[in-house]
Amino acid sequence: MEYEAVIGLEIHAQLLTESKIFCGCSTRFGAEPNENTCPVCTGMPGVLPVLNRRVVELALRTAVALQGEIPTRSVFARKNYFYPDLPKGYQISQFEAPLSVGGHVDIESDGETRRIRLTRIHLEEDAGKLVYEGTMEKADAGYVDLNRTGVPLIEIVTEPDLRSPAEAAAFLRKLRSIVRYLEVCDGNMEQGSLRCDANVSIRPAGSEGLGVKTELKNMNSFRFVERALEYEIDRQIAAVEDGEKIVQETRLWDESKNATLSMRGKEEAHDYRYFPDPDLVPVEIDSAWVEEIREGLPELPDAKERRYVEELKLPAEDARTLTATAELAEYFEKTVALFPQAKKVSNWVLTELLRELNRDNKEIDECAVTPEHLAGMLSMIEDGSISGKIGKQVFEEMYRTGKEPKGIVKEKGWVQIQDSSELTGVIEQVVTSHPDEVSKFRAGKEKVFGFLVGQVMKATRGQANPKMVNELLRKRLASDD
Q1: Is residue 433 part of a domain?
Q2: What is the pLDDT of residues 109-128, one digit of tens each?
Q3: pTM over 0.70
Q4: Is the same domain home to 364 and 474?
Q5: What is the dihedral of CA 49, 50, 53, 59, to 10 degrees?
Q6: 318: exposed, middle or buried (C-beta count within 10 Å: 0-12, 13-18, 19+)?
């Protein structure tokens, strides 16, 4: 029997606020353990939470951008469970009245656009972090760091619309791009700013029912999400074919074992004993605030991609890559504003620039080549000051040193040779040195011309003006000498 996977994701995105959701403690990453804490976020008796308005604003930006429906009334609830890293014994979250309902994200899958529906977006506080000596299975000691306790999160829950690990990874990449464009989350998965839980089940291909699902917790990279889902789908299929029953449970991805491991039985909503938090009043959201946020949204990746294709006439794949992050799109647009030939700029950004950045594992904002410098170099190629070949050497030097292109060309002596008398002399040497190739060209073998041009460029160390070389060489070969 053939099976298909049914996958839904729950993504936790840390909001870009300086302080926590219900107190004034810092959200700074990397502080000493338990440094960013106070009686409120550590759950001391008698304290009261105070909602951070900026948290609601950033959450609304996300909900509006993802086309969710914003109810006028949103309620915080207590989600009760007893973990060592949850000092109050409950988490302040939202249940029956979330911030947003519905919405969608479009992804590319097998060359087609698929719409992945959202169930809801709600606000909640983060829990702390357990730190072990040794492994989690055989720890010599365990410690609790409460710095993350009370850090503001939005949880974005999808419908079970995803059908493969590759689609799940594509959805997560797209969502990360959107929240970074919106400047509501930095998307840093290594630091836990963006985390993903996945619910996955299998069913006979083509059927409509849902199988028993397992939950995969806290995966913090695209690769881990894809690999964990692949393993879990294979595990479930093997279990069913062996006559076993799938148990509804929570499992963890163990990178060292390349496997998912059982963590605990999966809780249901009633296990958490949700009830409205008596310390927090309902949040009233009027339509004027929603419209104000809508009007302030930036151009998002899909719209920017369409504009690049329709207005700048870029291939769809180029446009998709250039708009993957707001920073890369901004770099590209700044360069095009200075050198208004979008396809040429795109070619250099997508080949030379991204190759160097990927090799060095750097982001675009760490690049030493500024848009001004790249545009300046392209202008020098365009006006014939340097050749395309020399341009690549100039680019490498700019990337390595951060120097501007004209200074590099002058320093290295790479100014293009445009003196016809000098080039005529070099061409004469090439023609004299390669009589067989000259004879073949005159006999009608056009391909030999490229070889002869290459010899001229080699003799001038790539500094000859290619257009002049072509014209002068053809003129020389057409003569009887």
Answers
A1: yes
A2: 888 899 999 999 999 999 99
A3: yes
A4: no
A5: 10
A6: buried
